[in-house]
Specification:
Largest sheet: 9 strands, mixed
Number of strands: 11
Strand order of the largest sheet: 5-4-6-7-3-8-9-10-11
Distance between the termini: 52 Å
Number of helices: 20
Helix content: 40-55%
CATH superfamily of the largest domain: P-loop containing nucleotide triphosphate hydrolases
Shape: elongated
Strand content: 5-15%
Number of domains: 2
Length: 489
């Protein structure tokens, strides 16, 4: 531990301030157990000094402080720290990772034992009685992610004037490798040209009045990611049972353009009726197509990625959701998460309140943190569905289907935390014409796209750009672009 502290304290200029700060930004974003009380006190002073001065203290400054408090234990410990080996940058990251791994091994064993005790005999933790398999596994999942040593590739702090070389490299990489800058495309041309996909760390909120295509939009987006954009997705459905979500997905696949492109269906084919699939009332020809073509292709096509659907059996907080996603990410590399919908998420214990507005706003903030901090701050795009209030709907009726930010029920935090906000709107005219109105009340990192109409066939659950010839193939591999007849942006 003395090496960690030696490498963030200035000892006669042996390490530059830039490297000291670089080391400390890594250290301060971890949860090191110092073990010795004197090391804890030294770290506490160093942290306070840095917070006030934005530089690291000299060894003499640290000595002066603890001599002033007559802390003889710390003064003796500083003698050991002063002569210890120092490390910088990648060497410091490696040292820190090794120490955290050793500490976390011990914590992991203790956590496993504690979880076992919950399962086998039940114990009291933080004033709450926990027992049984469900409580034991939930307890383990809630704490296991903290035991994974962080990645140190993410920058948290620095003087941007010193980053000229990195900025140049970042630009050239963006120019030459679009996969690095593009996010997760919706497959709807008007949205994708404006946003170039949902990026890692972004919270995308999509709102609509009840039964006006929140879930349909989300399922179509996930379907396009899985079949066209080489992305594994997790769809968390609080409102709709698992089998209903699954039925929607297979219905969307039955309406894919690929069936006409491959000559399996004639031109003008628009898919199958969801209700007829649900009720087992397809015609013989439709049934044959569904059972022998649609289902086998979606379930066995090796070019498609995973479409995980999770329907929680009981209330879940955003922390619970994150644990599910983090654990799934260890098995398959997740690229997109949908939460359907935000008002069903339980606020975490520290944010529960008699004021419903406070609670739901805390859920939105937690969703943004989930997007930012996923997989040790690598980040992931999160789509949070949200229900529009009646006043917002009435205002949109008078405004050609365009929603304003105040239409989001009880959630002024949506306006603050969301990176992108989109909405869908329906009225009788849209329903009769199989269309919906998209609008974009907020777009933090891009110009907002203009409101536009899109195909929204309620019968086959498919949403497409109004002009299919303008669908984008950006982010798709060459084979998929050819199959769907699409071009890159």
């Amino acid at each position: 531990m003395k090496r960690l502290l030696r490498s963030v304290i200035d000892v006669r200029g042996s390490i530059t301030q830039e490297n000291l700060v670089h080391n400390f930004t890594k250290l301060m974003n971890t949860k090191v157990d110092w073990g010795r009380d004197e090391d804890t006190r030294i770290y506490g002073f160093v942290y306070q000094y840095f917070s006030a001065q934005l530089e690291m203290p000299s060894i003499q400054t640290v000595k002066d402080y603890f001599e002033g408090t007559d802390d003889l234990e710390v003064i003796e410990r500083l003698k050991d720290i002063e002569v210890a080996e120092f490390y910088i940058r990648t060497n410091y990251s490696y040292l820190l990772t090794q120490i955290l791994e050793e500490q976390n091994k011990i914590k992991a064993v203790a956590l496993l034992r504690e979880s076992q005790d919950i399962i086998t005999k039940g114990i009291e933790i933080e004033g709450e009685r926990k027992s049984g398999i469900r409580d034991g596994l939930t307890h383990f999942m809630a704490r296991a992610n903290d035991l994974i040593a962080p990645s140190f590739n993410t920058r948290f702090r620095g003087d941007v004037r010193n980053d000229a070389e990195e900025v140049g490299k970042e630009y050239l990489e963006a120019k030459n490798n679009k996969d690095k800058v593009y996010g997760r495309f919706t497959g709807i041309e008007d949205i994708d040209r404006a946003c170039t996909g949902a990026k890692k760390g972004e919270l995308w909120v999509h709102g609509a009045f009840p039964s006006e295509l929140k879930t349909t939009f989300a399922i179509n987006w996930c379907y396009n990611l899985v079949t066209r954009y080489n992305t594994n997705v997790l769809y968390i459905s609080f409102e709709m049972p698992y089998v209903q979500v699954r039925r929607n997905i297979y219905t969307v696949h039955a309406a894919s353009d690929k069936w006409t492109t491959l000559g399996i269906q004639p031109p003008g084919y628009v898919g199958l009726d969801y209700r007829k699939i649900r009720d087992g009332e397809l015609s013989p020809e439709e049934e044959k197509f569904f059972l022998e073509r649609v289902i086998p292709d979606f379930s066995t096509n090796k070019t498609y990625q995973s479409f995980e659907v999770y329907n929680p059996e009981k209330e879940k907080t955003m922390l619970d959701i994150r644990m599910e996603a983090e654990l799934l990410h260890k098995r398959l590399e997740l690229g997109f998460v949908v939460i359907d919908h935000g008002q069903w998420v339980e606020p975490r214990r520290g944010k529960r309140s008699k004021d419903y507005t406070i609670e739901v706003n805390s859920v939105v903030r937690d969703a943004k943190q989930f997007a930012l901090q996923f997989n040790n701050n690598e980040g992931i795009p999160v789509l949070l569905l949200w229900q529009i209030n009646r006043e917002g709907k009435e205002a949109a009726n008078k405004n050609e289907g365009e929603y304003k930010l105040n239409a989001f029920t009880y959630a002024n935090e949506v306006e603050k935390s969301a990176d992108v906000i989109t909405t869908t709107y329906l009225n009788d005219e849209h329903r009769n014409n199989n269309t919906t109105r998209f609008s974009n009340p907020k777009n933090r990192d891009n110009p907002k796209f203009e409101p536009f109409d899109a195909h929204a066939n309620l019968r086959n659950r498919r949403i497409l750009g109004i002009d299919r010839t303008r669908q984008t193939g950006a982010g798709m591999n060459v084979e998929a672009q050819a199959l769907f007849g699409l071009d890159s942006i």
